Amino acid sequence: MNLNSMLKTASYTPISIQEPFAWAGHMHFAYWLIEELKPKIFVELGTHCGNSYFSFCQSVHQNNLLTNCYAVDTWQGDEHSGEYEDKVFAEVSLHNQNHYSNFSKLLRKTFDDALKDFENSSIGLLHIDGLHTYEAVLHDFQSWLPKLTPGAVVIFHDTNVFERNFGVWKLWRELQLIYPNNIEFFHSHGLGVFQLNNYLGGHPVEFLKLNELDKNIFCRYFSSLGEKQSANMVCKMERLLTQ
Questions:
Q1: Which CATH superfamily is domain 15-242 in?
Q2: How far apart are the C-alpha atoms of 226 and 74, rounded to whole Å?
Q3: In the 8-state DSSP scheme, what is residue 75?
Q4: How far apart are CA 188 and CA 53, in angstroms?
Q5: For the chain, which terminus, N or C, has the lower number of CB atoms within 10 Å?
Q6: Domain chopping of the chain, boundaries
Q7: What is the pLDDT of residues 13-60, one digit of tens each?
Q8: ∠ at Cα 71 (26, 130), nearest 5°?
Q9: pTM of this prediction?
């Protein structure tokens, strides 16, 4: 685990952040994580306005990584996110084209339809943030599991939401028992991160193997950066509203 890169992440400033801001508190962690893991392929299921996805992409670009990034979304919305206007995809597509088109691709299709675009055992980092019912996230994880490399890392957003038929928390608790190399952030609606057990001749991800005390310190560090980011967004919104 590169502590210097963790400290450097404190100076990260996103070049793209849009409403809704539910993911804003995890953007520093996303920026650091992809630099730490350096996966060959990163896939995000559920991108919406791009706050999470472009945090990963910005890190790939600024740290000169060789990661290929893919965002999968219909950009139509669902019962939890609400329906999207067409301009959401247009804005995401324009930002991607202007900044990351040499390594990032937007796949405007359902998660199931996108499965055929990836070979088995090819994805090193997967972020699941689509429909948040228990049945939906379980299906997404199980259907994409064969696409993951041995020892791949998986991220679930909204592990700390217990209303409106959100079921990520339930699946997350089940997965924690199966995959002991895991960590959970409780701010910004919660973020669960774990590594598959089948890392074979590779190595466990170091920050997922920390003892509980060190995990708490690790989480507090990124939580503090997230709180600062969220506070900055509130200040910007207040200024816009008073103009």
A1: Vaccinia Virus protein VP39 (3.40.50.150)
A2: 28
A3: S
A4: 16
A5: C
A6: 15-242
A7: 899 888 777 788 999 999 999 999 999 999 999 999 989 999 999 999
A8: 65
A9: 0.90
